[in-house]
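Notebook p. 47: complex prediction with copper (II) ion.
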Amino acid sequence: MKPFAPGEISPFAKVSSAFALLGLAKRPMLRRAGTLAAFAGMLALAGCRTAESTFNWRGPAAHRIANLSWDMTILFVVITIVMWGLFAFAFYRRHGTLAEHEPVEASGGELWIAIGGLAVPLLILTVLFVAGLSLLQAFPIHGMPNGLSQAQMAQAMKPEIRITGHQWWWTIDYLNDDPSKAFTTANELHLPTGRPINIEVGTSDVMHSFWIPALHGKVDLIPGQANYIRLLASQTGTYTGQCAEYCGAEHARMRLLAVVQTPSEYEAWLEDQRKPGNAPTTPDAQAGEKVFTTAACALCHTVRGTMAHGSVAPDLTHLASRQMLASDIYPNNTSFLEAWITNAQSLKPACLMPDLPNFSGQQLRDLVAYLQQLH
Ligand code: HEC
Ligand SMILES: [Cu+2]
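Predicted complex, structure tokens below:
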């Protein structure tokens, strides 16, 4: 099936808008069909073309997955139509009660059952199975017959980035043979266009699953095991992702952001992120730094270049450069920062950051002024 380029309207939306013209027809039946088609078209435009959709691919692996998803969707729509057709046929063919008809056993139907219930499903499922197997080539995997062992895999997939899942956020380590160039960030993954990036994934607690539909399929984060995924993004943009394996209370809000940049923008971003946290220059930010390093914050969070070396919470060294807070849930602005610090439990109930309601208004403003200059 011919794929459509990103940004184009999906084939389904096109077909249904063509049928929507029937809405202008004279005959009521046609008009109703037209209205229905228009409605389906609207759903297709609203549902499938948002940023986070399997059909909204921005890289070769996601493209292959989108193609198979289209083939399956169309196949299943056809099967549904055929089934409803047969059902209607059976429904209207004979009227009257059972008593008026021959007993069921009398008429043979075994052939129908063998073909419709066995041969056809077997054929369709086999085709899908083979298509699925061939799609696996888009994924570097280990443990398959004749495939790479875990050790060979680690060699072949020498990762540039390590992503660690936590309840309910992500650590993102940018690795480097030169330790002075390695750094840690959280919840916002940056990638360059046009170059495959190997990523190792793991978890610090329960199972999670890393999934950015625009770029690739899912890869599970399994305790005690490293898994790998290779992301190649073909277009700059900001794509959302989601933990795809139930992992506890805030699973649904364990999201993340992937920012795909041109190679030069990406290099500049890496350069910025390697720096320690900005030293505060204004009086309120300076006061805020004192609050930050003396209050509980420093026990859990790190800001490189300060006394804060906590390792159980997102690295805040460049917090102000991130678009969103708390794994892509709230915009990173003054109101949400203040609300988050004092009331994290009501913004993301059960998350592992406690409410810290005891700051004075001045302390809170200073703290936020400090965090907001951590570009
Ligand atoms: C007991 C550990 C703990 C303490 C103490 C703590 N935090 Fe957190 N903080 C967390 C965790 C865990 C998260 C991630 C929550 C989530 O998204 O599920 C978090 C998230 C955040 C975020 C959002 C980070 C991001 O990447 O979006 C900010 C900002 C933040 N904390 C600031 C603070 C400040 C300021 C203090 C001190 C006033 C503080 N935290 C104290 C554990 C802590
Ligand atoms: Cu989850």
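Notes: The chain has ten helices and twelve strands. The pocket of copper (II) ion (ligand 2) is lined by residues 208, 243, 245-247, 251, 254 (CB under 6 Å).
Next step: compare against the earlier run before touching the bench.
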